Amino acid sequence: MRYALYAFYAILLIVLTVVCVANLQWVTLNTLPEGLARIPQMDRLAFSVEVPLFAVALGFLVLGWVLGEVYEWLREYKYRAEASAKKTEVRKLERQLKKTQAERDKDKDEVLAILDQAS
Description:
The protein is mostly helical. The protein folds into two domains: 1-75, no CATH class; 77-119. The protein is built from five helices and two strands. Strands 1-2 form a two-stranded antiparallel ribbon. This is Lipopolysaccharide assembly protein A domain-containing protein. Residues 83-110 form a coiled coil.
């Protein structure tokens, strides 16, 4: 399965490289449409920058990936919290078990206690 994922990544990298090379022309990226930029208080938010088209496409691709990862991390929080609580509970129960076994085995012969723990 790991090799299939690597093959997918390699194909994706080749496709993205070809798309980037095919889109080297420069485009103007505006933060606001021209009509909205003419509103008096909105003109502070309006600016333009010229960037290659592939940079815009890859930038939004990366932004979408990052937002998706953040969303998934936030969505899975309750499962991570539950797993952490269960892990803490298991550790507590293991400590109690060892304490109980030690109390049970304190009057036994060492060899018998070791045999009981092994089984």
